[in-house]
Design a protein that fits this description.
Layout (H helix, E strand, L loop, with lengths): L1 H17 L6 H8 L4 E5 L7 E2 L4 E9 L5 E9 L11 E5 L3 E7 L7 E10 L3 E3 L3 E4 L6 E6 L9 E9 L5 E10 L5 E5 L6 E6 L7 E10 L2 E11 L6 E2 L3 E5 L4 E9 L7 E7 L9 E4 L7 E6 L8 E9 L2 E4 L5 E3 L7 E4 L3 E2 L5 E9 L7 E7 L11 E5 L7 E6 L7 E10 L2 E4 L3 E4 L4 E4 L12 E5 L2 E5 L12 E5 L4 E4 L7 E2 L2 E6 L2 E9 L4 E9 L4 E5 L14 E5 L2 E5 L2 E4 L2 E4 L3 E5 L4 E5 L10 E5 L2 E5 L2 E4 L5 E3 L3 E5 L9 E2 L9 E7 L2 E6 L3 E6 L4 E7 L9 E5 L2 E6 L4 E5 L12
Antiparallel strand pairs: 1-3, 2-3, 3-6, 4-5, 4-7, 7-8, 7-9, 10-11, 11-14, 12-13, 12-15, 15-16, 17-19, 18-19, 19-22, 20-21, 20-23, 23-24, 23-25, 26-28, 27-28, 28-31, 29-30, 29-32, 32-33, 32-34, 35-63, 36-37, 37-38, 38-39, 40-42, 41-42, 42-43, 43-44, 45-46, 46-49, 47-48, 49-50, 51-52, 52-55, ...
């Protein structure tokens, strides 16, 4: 009681001394309190940590708001502006200052809206909102294949766990698929290291596979990417053979086993023969494997004067492996040279290339070497009708030459020879056959009477026009032969049925047809042009009405811009006569002009241009009393003149049969076909004739020669047959060196 009175006294004394007492600070704050202030801290010093089921970040309560902060934490949701009332909250503490906020129990791989909060007695405030995805929680890994451990039926494969993810690892292994199939094998591994691997077996030999490592944790499955590999053949590997010793009677080689393959070695050794790439189907010898993986052996049953090829081999249950390359080569020692003949290379234009090698000089230097060739099977330096070319060059081991003017359709035999002081050695004989001089081609679609149709050619195309059929009916048929395709085609028929017309090739775009005898027995002197691109015939009339006489069997040729019509046959009733007239049709002015006549009246002859000159002649002058034609043996040439003039010069008389059935120009020379079926060539420079081959009997009555591309095509209208004639192989066999 005394203490109470004393205390009251002290209070009154204080009031008296100071006048009044201020309210305590706490009382003032309560009256002015506000919600706390909280901020989100996201910067380099305060990174966000994203996990599969949680997101962790930093926040700070910077001001309590005048009353204690009862709690602070984080709230989140899958929509913007989450609040604590939603229930997705986590209380992290109370008071002020920085704190770690954890949004937890989240769903993996989901976008969340997140913000911190702080609560006091006044209320709740929120920091800045941010949005982040939770991770998948799966981790990262890669697939690997150990290439050096791939075998025929197995391979070592696995995965490397770079990041195990956030959940418990439940399983790891690989997916394996053979390429070309849809079946995938899942192979779990028991190895629990971050790098896990094992050998998978039961694979197919030389098969392609795809492998991918996988890992399963509580969040799902991750894979390491697909890799491909191919199983091996399982066979062993041996080195190329090394020469140990070569003598007069034996050869010894060694090699090394580089790999045994995927099974035990059952045999190894050397196979050998006279051709490259010897195998066990040739001669072979086995050997014993030494401790250092080498093996060696001497080859039995080998002879001198022969090149051999030898390869090492090794065999296991998967097969036999041969050393790389075509084989090491060797020849036994010999006193005489050892030579080898290569396969001849038959070219074009009558050319054949020979080659050969001196494999060993023998016991003394080579003094002579060359090639022998003949139509006999074993040519030697003493063989009659054989020829040799001495190609000796001191120190040389390889020889080659090209022989021209070989005859086509002939079997030849060639070999290389070489001499030294101990004797002559011959290489193996190589046989070869040259291309045939005559080769069959497609037959024409229709058979015609010989010499009754007109013909012309340009580049690789030959044309036949009109004529009479086998039953003597006139025709308007127009045929084209394409040498490149070996094909006959029917073109637009001529506007009238005729025979003995004159057909002239003007250029690639057009041909011209003149005269001929029609179905009414009337001679004609009209001129038609054929357009090759349009497959169309059109008559051309002269501007002034001047025309040559109506004739048949005239010769025709192009001279610059002119169409020349020379000679021909005029039929009047039962009588006939040849003419020597020469007419020129100017294709630009569409007018006819008469030129200097032929030296002799003829018809059904030849008209060609070669070496800048026009050649006309041969043919017939008429018919004898017995009905046989009388042949003209003369022919003439004239330069191609700019003014269209003609100056005839007689050419060398034909050296063959009287009659010429057909002619063409090939590579600047004139080829003619006589009535006996022989082909002749006329050298326009030397003015000389040379007889070539006779046609095969079945086409000996041919009357058409087309020079098309690199061949002359011979056609017999009466039998429809066509053959290709290669002049470059039509040579006479000569045994001169």
């Amino acid at each position: 009681m005394k203490y109470t009175k004393h205390s009251l006294w002290m209070v009154l004394l204080a009031v008296f001394a100071f006048g009044c007492i201020e309210d305590p600070e706490f009382g003032t704050d309560v009256r002015d309190a506000s919600v706390p202030e909280v901020i989100t801290l996201i910067d380099d010093e305060h990174p966000i940590q994203q996990l599969a089921t949680s997101i962790i970040f930093q926040a700070e309560v910077t001001h309590a708001g005048g009353v204690p902060v009862e709690r602070y934490g984080v709230c989140w949701g899958t929509t913007s502006n989450p609040v604590i009332e939603s229930g997705d909250t986590s209380v992290c503490g109370s008071g002020t200052g920085e704190f770690t906020a954890i949004a937890k129990n989240l769903k993996p791989n989901t976008l969340y809206y997140i913000r911190p909060y702080a609560t006091n007695s006044v209320g709740t405030s929120y920091g800045d909102e941010f949005q982040k995805n939770t991770t998948k929680g799966l981790g990262v890994m890669r697939t690997f294949v150990i290439d050096s451990l791939i075998r025929a039926e197995s391979a070592v494969v696995g995965g490397n766990i770079l990041d195990p993810g956030e959940g418990e690892i439940l399983e790891r292994g690989v997916y394996l698929t053979q390429k070309g199939t849809k079946i995938t094998d899942t192979i779990p591994f028991t190895m629990e290291a971050d790098s896990f691997y094992q050998r998978v077996t039961g694979l197919e030999r030389l098969a392609s596979y795809e492998v991918e490592a996988y890992l399963v944790n509580t969040f799902g499955t991750i894979t390491g990417g697909v890799l491909s590999f191919t199983t091996t053949d399982g066979m062993p590997l041996v080195a190329e053979p090394d020469t140990v010793d070569i003598s007069f009677t034996s050869a010894t080689f060694s090699s090394k086993l580089l790999e045994s393959g995927d099974s035990l070695i059952t045999a190894l050794g050397f196979c050998y023969g006279t051709e490259p790439n010897p195998t066990l189907e040739n001669d072979f010898v086995t050997a014993e494997l030494q401790a250092d993986s080498t093996f060696s052996a001497s080859l039995p049953d080998i002879v001198q004067q022969t090149r051999y090829y030898v390869r090492a081999f090794a065999t296991n249950s998967y097969g036999t492996f041969y050393s790389d390359g075509s084989g090491a080569t060797f020849v036994l020692k010999d006193q005489k040279p050892t030579v080898e003949t290569e396969e001849p290379q038959v070219g074009i234009g009558g050319n054949v290339a020979f080659s050969g090698t001196i494999l060993a000089e023998g016991m003394s230097p080579v003094t002579e070497a060359g090639f022998l060739w003949s139509t006999e099977e074993e040519p030697t330096l003493e063989t009659p009708k054989s020829s040799h070319r001495n190609l000796f060059e001191e120190g040389a081991t390889e020889y080659a030459m090209t022989l021209g003017n070989m005859r086509g359709g002939t079997t030849y035999y060639v070999r290389l020879y070489a001499k030294n002081e101990y004797g002559t050695s011959y290489g193996e004989v190589k046989a070869f056959e040259t291309p045939r001089i005559f080769e069959s081609r497609s037959s024409a679609p229709e058979a015609m009477q010989a010499s009754s149709q007109a013909l012309a050619s340009y580049n690789s195309l030959g044309y036949l026009l009109g004529g009479s059929t086998q039953d003597s009916q006139l025709t308007d048929q127009f045929l084209r032969y394409n040498a490149s395709a070996d094909q006959w085609n029917k073109r637009e028929p001529f506007p009238d049925r005729r025979k003995w017309q004159t057909l002239i090739s003007y250029n690639s775009s057009s041909l011209w047809a003149f005269g001929g005898l029609d179905e009414d027995g009337q001679m004609n002197n009209d001129l038609y042009i054929y357009y090759t691109r349009d497959d169309l015939w059109r008559m051309t009339e002269p501007t002034d009405g001047t025309k040559p006489a109506a004739v048949c069997n005239a010769m025709g040729i192009t001279d610059n811009l002119n169409i020349l019509i020379a000679g021909g046959r005029i039929l009047t009733g039962s009588s006939e006569r040849a003419t020597d007239k020469v007419w020129a049709f100017n294709t630009l002015g569409a007018s006819w002009a008469e030129l200097s006549p032929l030296p002799k009246a003829i018809y059904d002859g030849i008209a060609l241009e070669a070496d800048g000159r026009i050649f006309i002649g041969f043919g017939k002058t008429g018919t004898s009393v017995s009905g046989e034609p009388t042949y003209n043996t003369a022919w003439w040439s004239s330069p191609v003149m700019a003014d269209g003039g003609i100056a005839w010069t007689e050419e060398t008389a034909f050296a063959g049969a009287d009659g010429i059935r057909a002619a063409c120009v090939f590579e600047g020379d004139i080829y003619v076909l006589d009535t006996d079926g022989y082909i002749w060539i006329y050298d326009t420079y030397d003015k000389e004739w040379e007889m070539k081959s006779q046609l095969p009997s079945e086409i000996r009555n041919a009357s058409v020669l087309f020079a098309l591309g690199n061949m002359i095509y011979v056609h017999a209208p009466s039998s429809k047959l066509t053959v290709a004639y290669d002049p470059t192989w039509d040579n006479t066999i000569s045994w001169e060196e």
